[in-house]
């Protein structure tokens, strides 16, 4: 196995950037999910998991690192992330601030994605609050653990573009590898170049993969596939449709496209 592609998403719930290498520290991918929008009214982190309010974020693209992160709006305008609250509030129709500080106990709204599919993106479905980054040290706005990995075996079986699942690492697997092989990696370790990852959870899927991503149309099959073929009992969360794997960083270093991936 080896790394096929690497991704970083500087602003939570926006499109990100494909890179040839990624620096990884104990908090995850450096520069990943460093910025997030905060709903001024409720103080919650904005995420397209709640598509009724936030799906337009997936029409924006973020790139860069540190103070050089930029956001490209749907109309083509490019603005510095730290100065983007005004244009983004206008786009979303909701007042937001831009933050680089994840507060303790930060939450998002996470409606059941199958309810959203059944009732429509603008339906008022029950949206429980979910604490993010429960498996991540530091202040980045990741959903659970610092690194998200998915294999080509799973993507090919589902027929879904990698970017819809928002991984950091896409692993090329040998011919004949079964889909959802990531489930079998729990309790083991992944060595990628000089980086060691410890898998933590299968990745539960939300509404995000089904939504428009830039010019890509909606894709209900991105949720229906895992729902039909890979429901997993995720510790602490229940039985959920899953695709991919979350992991924590045990030994930091650098991922590079083409690096060998070993499982022990």
Automatic annotation (TrEMBL):
Species per Swiss-Prot/TrEMBL record: Pseudonocardia parietis
MOSC domain ranges (all copies): 123-264
Pfam families to which the protein is assigned, alphabetical: MOSC (PF03473), MOSC_N (PF03476)
Domain of life: Bacteria
Protein name, UniProt field: Uncharacterized protein YcbX
Lineage: Bacteria, Bacillati, Actinomycetota, Actinomycetes, Pseudonocardiales
Family annotation (SUPFAM superfamilies): MOSC N-terminal domain-like (SSF141673), PK beta-barrel domain-like (SSF50800)
């Amino acid at each position: 196995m080896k790394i096929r592609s690497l991704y970083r998403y500087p602003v939570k719930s926006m499109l990100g950037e494909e890179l040839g290498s990624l620096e990884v520290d104990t908090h995850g991918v450096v520069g990943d999910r460093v910025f997030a929008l905060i709903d001024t009214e409720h103080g919650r982190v904005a995420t397209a998991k709640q598509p009724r309010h936030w799906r337009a974020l997936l029409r924006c693209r973020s790139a860069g690192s540190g103070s050089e992160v930029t956001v490209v709006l749907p109309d083509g305008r490019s603005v510095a992330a730290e100065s983007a609250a005004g244009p983004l509030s206008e786009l979303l129709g909701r007042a937001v601030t831009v933050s680089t500080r994840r507060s303790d106990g930060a939450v998002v709204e996470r409606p059941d994605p199958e309810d959203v599919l059944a009732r429509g993106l603008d339906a008022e479905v029950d949206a429980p609050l979910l604490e993010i980054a429960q498996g991540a040290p530091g202040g980045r706005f990741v959903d659970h653990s610092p690194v998200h990995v998915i294999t080509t075996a799973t993507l090919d079986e589902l027929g879904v573009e990698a970017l819809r699942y928002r991984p950091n690492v896409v692993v090329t697997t040998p011919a004949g590898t079964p889909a959802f092989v990531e489930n079998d990696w729990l309790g083991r370790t992944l060595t990628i170049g000089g980086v060691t990852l410890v898998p933590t959870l299968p990745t539960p899927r939300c509404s995000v993969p089904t939504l428009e991503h830039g010019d890509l149309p909606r894709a209900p099959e991105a949720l229906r596939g895992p729902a039909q073929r890979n429901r997993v009992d995720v510790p602490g969360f229940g039985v959920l449709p899953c695709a991919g794997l979350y992991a924590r960083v045990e030994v930091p270093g650098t991922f590079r496209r083409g690096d060998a991936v070993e499982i022990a």
